[in-house]
Amino acid sequence: MSEFTHDVLVYGPGFLSAAWTVLWLTLVTIGVSWIFGLAAALGQRSDMRAVRSVAAFYVWFIRGTPALIQIFIIYFGMPQVGVRLSPYTAGVLALAINSGAYVTEIIRSGLSAIPAGQTESSLALGFSPRETMRTVILPQVFRIILPSITNEALSTLKNTSLLSTITVVELTLYAQTLISATFRPFDFYIAVAVIYLVLTTILTQLAAFFERRYARLY
Amino acid sequence: MTQDAPPPLLKLRDIRKSFGTLDVLKGIDLEVAPGEVVSIIGASGSGKSTFLRSINAIEPADKGRMEFEGWDFDFDRDSRFFPTDRQLQALRSRIGMVFQSYNLWPHKTVLQNVIHAPMGVLGQSRTEATEVADALLDRIGLYDKRDASPLRLSGGQQQRVAIARALAMKPRLMLFDEVTSALDPELVNEVLQLMASLADEGMTMLLVTHEMSFARDVSSRVLFFDQGEIGEEGPPSKVLRAPESPRLQQFLHSILHDDLRTSTAKKGLIQ
Ligand SMILES: Nc1ncnc2c1ncn2[C@@H]1O[C@H](COP(=O)(O)OP(=O)(O)OP(=O)(O)O)[C@@H](O)[C@H]1O
Ligand SMILES: [Mg+2]
């Protein structure tokens, strides 16, 4: 048995389960970040000044501070004020809050690219502003922002490695435990990089598929 | 008015609208009888678009009353007759509006553009809405384009689809805001013909236009908008042929001048 086959058999299952953790953490985070991003982007256009201010503060704060510090505030900081979250919950929440701020800016630029006439023709037919947003504006926005939202999703995927610092057993932390037992940092960090490449490639292909589907529609 | 004249379909009283310190509508009164075709002419910035937009209330007036199909609204915010959001939506669904820039939805097919509001606003089933839409698309000669993207159509075709989209709601009143201004000259007629056929069928229409011959031939009445007021109104034979006020005379003169200029320019191109 070659050393490589041996390694795959011994460490493969562990890497696979860590990769799985990364994948679902990423997907859940992306979903939540879109909700945050959409809420804040719509908040920025609200009639109410207070809502606009909250949305603006959110984007300003998140984009102006390191993701790692945001993760630490939520995982290590919140217990001090009585909110204790599991590493996984804290991790998803922190990454989603972080990514949501960038998604806000992406959606904002998408919204501003849609001519006012699109909204007006829908309102003029009797649709409510909410229905207009849902059925006329957002589908068009989604198509425009697909490339940038894909980039943001890739960032989220790679940012999950930051969660190794709060004991989430994802790829990086798993590799670190192996390295401290085997002293083979080169092998295992390369393995982590390769697995990330596989994951990012899958995600990119998925986005390309959606983009093609939309292109056909137009 | 004769005794058996039908009650007006639309009644507007003292419609006012300002943007900041700019008074754009300075108290417009208007009654439109069922089946009437009213053309609105006037210089750029005289408030024509603002007026149409206040009628279907995508930008409600600041003041004034409006009677339409049993509604009686007062656009003064403090009035208890100020329309609720739901009433405004219902009002808009009963008034068709067609814009200069068509505003078709590019993420939907031609057919989907036409059935979207009947399904989403009126609650029609897909079968029901599609039946109506197909008949309309057939009428405007674009049935074979029903599954195409609107972006693949010519401007004239897009504008006809926009009209069909409004008609699918079975509106009682149609508003047209310079619907041929963005079109290449050779595409203008197909849209005007469709509008003329609607007028023939008795559709009540209010249209802002620079097409003087269309205003003359199709409308029963012409309004001259002058700095947010109706400067002059009457049958086209009077307003367009025998204008009274110097300002209308001047306006018609400048329009005529433009027409001459463009037709000379066209001749130049042909030679
Ligand atoms: N949303 C708005 N905010 C501020 N000013 C506006 C707004 N809409 C219109 N105006 C102003 O109101 C005036 C009347 O505009 P309106 O579009 O009604 O004119 P119009 O008669 O339709 O002109 P045109 O022939 O150029 O279409 C213009 O001075 C315009 O700048
Ligand atoms: Mg206008």
From TrEMBL, chain A:
<keyword id="KW-1133">Transmembrane helix</keyword>
<keyword id="KW-0813">Transport</keyword>
<dbReference type="InterPro" id="IPR000515">
    <property type="entry name" value="MetI-like"/>
</dbReference>
<keyword id="KW-0472">Membrane</keyword>
<feature type="transmembrane region" description="Helical">
    <location>
        <begin position="188"/>
        <end position="210"/>
    </location>
</feature>
<comment type="similarity">
    <text>Belongs to the binding-protein-dependent transport system permease family. HisMQ subfamily.</text>
</comment>
<protein>
    <recommendedName>
        <fullName>Putative glutamine transport system permease protein GlnP</fullName>
    </recommendedName>
</protein>
<feature type="domain" description="ABC transmembrane type-1">
    <location>
        <begin position="19"/>
        <end position="207"/>
    </location>
</feature>
<dbReference type="InterPro" id="IPR043429">
    <property type="entry name" value="ArtM/GltK/GlnP/TcyL/YhdX-like"/>
</dbReference>
<dbReference type="GO" id="GO:0022857">
    <property type="term" value="F:transmembrane transporter activity"/>
</dbReference>
<dbReference type="InterPro" id="IPR035906">
    <property type="entry name" value="MetI-like_sf"/>
</dbReference>
<keyword id="KW-0029">Amino-acid transport</keyword>
<comment type="function">
    <text>Part of the binding-protein-dependent transport system for glutamine; probably responsible for the translocation of the substrate across the membrane.</text>
</comment>
<dbReference type="InterPro" id="IPR010065">
    <property type="entry name" value="AA_ABC_transptr_permease_3TM"/>
</dbReference>
<dbReference type="GO" id="GO:0006865">
    <property type="term" value="P:amino acid transport"/>
</dbReference>
<feature type="transmembrane region" description="Helical">
    <location>
        <begin position="55"/>
        <end position="78"/>
    </location>
</feature>
<dbReference type="Pfam" id="PF00528">
    <property type="entry name" value="BPD_transp_1"/>
</dbReference>
<dbReference type="GO" id="GO:0043190">
    <property type="term" value="C:ATP-binding cassette (ABC) transporter complex"/>
</dbReference>
<keyword id="KW-0812">Transmembrane</keyword>
<feature type="transmembrane region" description="Helical">
    <location>
        <begin position="20"/>
        <end position="43"/>
    </location>
</feature>
<keyword id="KW-1003">Cell membrane</keyword>
TrEMBL record, chain B:
<protein>
    <submittedName>
        <fullName>Amino acid ABC transporter ATP-binding protein</fullName>
    </submittedName>
</protein>
<keyword id="KW-0547">Nucleotide-binding</keyword>
<dbReference type="InterPro" id="IPR027417">
    <property type="entry name" value="P-loop_NTPase"/>
</dbReference>
<keyword id="KW-0067">ATP-binding</keyword>
<keyword id="KW-0472">Membrane</keyword>
<dbReference type="GO" id="GO:0015424">
    <property type="term" value="F:ABC-type amino acid transporter activity"/>
</dbReference>
<feature type="domain" description="ABC transporter">
    <location>
        <begin position="10"/>
        <end position="252"/>
    </location>
</feature>
<dbReference type="InterPro" id="IPR050086">
    <property type="entry name" value="MetN_ABC_transporter-like"/>
</dbReference>
<comment type="similarity">
    <text>Belongs to the ABC transporter superfamily.</text>
</comment>
<dbReference type="InterPro" id="IPR017871">
    <property type="entry name" value="ABC_transporter-like_CS"/>
</dbReference>
<dbReference type="GO" id="GO:0005524">
    <property type="term" value="F:ATP binding"/>
</dbReference>
<dbReference type="InterPro" id="IPR030679">
    <property type="entry name" value="ABC_ATPase_HisP-typ"/>
</dbReference>
<dbReference type="Pfam" id="PF00005">
    <property type="entry name" value="ABC_tran"/>
</dbReference>
<keyword id="KW-0029">Amino-acid transport</keyword>
<dbReference type="GO" id="GO:0016887">
    <property type="term" value="F:ATP hydrolysis activity"/>
</dbReference>
<dbReference type="InterPro" id="IPR003439">
    <property type="entry name" value="ABC_transporter-like_ATP-bd"/>
</dbReference>
<keyword id="KW-1003">Cell membrane</keyword>
<dbReference type="GO" id="GO:0005886">
    <property type="term" value="C:plasma membrane"/>
</dbReference>
<dbReference type="InterPro" id="IPR003593">
    <property type="entry name" value="AAA+_ATPase"/>
</dbReference>
<keyword id="KW-0813">Transport</keyword>
